[in-house]
């Protein structure tokens, strides 16, 4: 049973309201020279708890992120004046949300290193506005599904086998409905909410498609 469905709260030290969560981080926009990509942690006040918007990437043989659960985001493009520009552009391209769909400015959570690709990723967070349009998969070539993850889902984890930066290995994952959250995205969201992730301290942002255990 999912922790979110059972009513079990996730352990951690982070505040529970979106306002408290976001108030911990500055509303600044680092230059694109500080990272090669940017992602957005989009939050909303769900019926009973804070929820995070996540995407599941489409299955594509040429895409190293094929089938993976991730935050909306992507690589810096020519002409992006800052990492916030990158984050907002990718947010609109992938799930159709614009700056007007967010309450206030994006908050800069920090920069995380994606060791597998040698890539630094700027992480931002923002609150979905009350009158925002519903996020949807804008391009089926890139995004297969969008869904909201309740914070309490992070209270449970299971071992799975995946191809990591250190080779085929068993890692911890959060399984919510049919979605499997692990690696970079799980570490970032657990750290954001103050939940112990039990993940390796380093690892990939995007990795090849999951391998079945031998």
Task: Describe this protein with a few key phrases.
Nucleoside Triphosphate Pyrophosphohydrolase, three-stranded antiparallel β-sheet, 4 helices, disordered C terminus, 214 residues, globular, alpha+beta, seven-stranded mixed β-sheet
Short description:
With about 210 residues, the chain is an alpha+beta fold.
Q: C-alpha Rg, in Å? A: 16 Å
Shape: globular
**CATH homologous superfamily of the domain at 14-152, by name?**
Nucleoside Triphosphate Pyrophosphohydrolase
Provide the structure class. Answer: alpha+beta
Average pLDDT number: 81
Flag low-confidence runs.
Answer: 1-8, 200-214
Terminal Cα span? 26 Å
Instruction: Please state the second-level CATH architecture of the domain at 14-152.
Output: Alpha-Beta Complex
Beta-strand percentage range: 25-35%
Count every helix, treating DSSP H or I runs of 4 or more residues as helices. 4
Write the SSE topology.
Elements: H1 3-6, H2 18-23, E1 37-45, E2 50-57, E3 69-70, E4 73-75, H3 83-95, E5 102-114, E6 119-128, E7 143-150, E8 158-164, E9 167-176, E10 179-182, H4 183-193
Describe the structure.
- There is one protein chain.
- This protein is an alpha+beta fold and 214 residues long.
- It has a domain of 139 residues: Nucleoside Triphosphate Pyrophosphohydrolase (Alpha-Beta Complex).
- It has four helices and ten strands; from the N terminus they run ααββββαββββββα.
- Strands 1, 2, 3, 4, 5, 6 and 7 form a seven-stranded mixed sheet that branches. Strands 8-9-10 form a three-stranded antiparallel sheet.
- The radius of gyration is 16 Å and the shape is globular.
- The chain starts with a helix and ends in a 21-residue tail after the last helix.
- The N terminus and C terminus are likely disordered.
